[in-house]
Amino acid sequence: MTEQTGTGFTALPDLAVRTLGGSVPAASDESFEEKENLINPWAPAFHPERFGPKGQEYDGWETARRRGPGHDWALVRLGLPGVIRGVVVDTAWFKGNYPPHASVEACRADGYPGPAELAAADWVEIVPKSPLKGDAAHEFPVEAERLFTHVRLNMFPDGGIARLRVHGEVVPDPRLLTGLTIDLAALENGARVVECSDMFYSSPDNMLFPGLARNQAEGWETARRRGPGHDWALVRLAARGRVTLVEVDTTNLKFNAPAEVAVRAVRPGDGDRAPLHDVLPRTRVQPDTRHRFRVPPVEASMVRVDVHPDGGLARLRLLGELTPEGERTLTTRWDALTAS
After folding, report:
1. Which neighbouring-strand residues pair with 320?
2. How is the chain split into domains, by residue range?
3. Taking 70 as the threshold, does the pLDDT of residue 202 lie above it?
4. How far apart are CA 49 and CA 57, in angstroms?
5. So what's the pLDDT on residue 2?
């Protein structure tokens, strides 16, 4: 069994990454490299032979050499608002041009404010001014039990930072979910994979991402199983709800899709030991195909996805509606985290 808590807060979703809707609406300077590189989903790359009209090209954000007072900053809108549990400031490949210090602030702003409006927001320091090294990933745990929608990365005084990762727990706005048909298994609605049998090639959380997977790496794929049994993933839904339609997507998985897939409602804490009700009974699936199955309504707050015997899924969608209990759960948490 593989626990989805792995390496502490870095096992949580990156709330700022571009593939989850993050953006960088403003920065003090981006003379050498664009601010948007901070939230690229891939690991930073470097090609020493690549020089452009501005000099060496870097896969990150790089500002001009500051000759006066002050410091540089970049404003990031989280794709998925939530509780931040940790931040990674990565200076990969910046060896002689990294900033010696950095800090991170966060705020919560309703609606869709622009950079000028956010300047007057109630900013909270979640990572104090801290020393950095070149070509290194710096992990900073965060203890702030509040909902945030934006972060501001400050570097002192200037230089280059490859990536900013903002790991945390998604907190969906219940006003956007209650009374509607929603994807109960969507990461953006607060669902998570909490355990799985195998994630050799990629994280099972990938199958809960929004949009369509563009390649195999953007789904969940297990190693080849050589013994008995099958692989599985335990998904905690956004909240308790009634599932009425299941989508199993094997797009891009042409020779490594499972032969069959099943989805079962399970009790929280039971893991792979106590299936309760079939949401989707064991069903044959095809490679590189989106499968949609209308099912009799099944109430659940957690499901186990079984892939027989192994393979990968690009996406899993469980469409349905929240139960009254599920609506209360989301509303109570939202109210508690936005009270301050």
Report:
1. 182, 243
2. 2-169, 174-327
3. yes
4. 9
5. 34
pLDDT(7) > 70: no
**pLDDT of 175 above 80:** yes
Alpha-carbon distance 4 to 66, whole Å?
A: 42
Tokens of 321: 């509606």
pLDDT at 156 over 60: yes
Q: Whole-angstrom Cα distance, residue 36 to residue 22? A: 9
Please write the tens of the pLDDT for every residue from 214-236.
999 999 999 999 999 999 999 99
Tokens of 77: 């809108």
Q: What percent of the chain has pLDDT over 70?
A: 95
Right CATH for 174-327 from 2.60.120.260, 3.40.50.720, 3.40.50.2300, 3.90.1210.10: 2.60.120.260
In this prediction the pTM is 0.92
CATH of 2-169, one of 3.40.190.10, 2.60.120.260, 3.20.20.140, 3.10.150.10: 2.60.120.260
Average pLDDT over residues 86-110: 97
What's the pLDDT at 3? 34
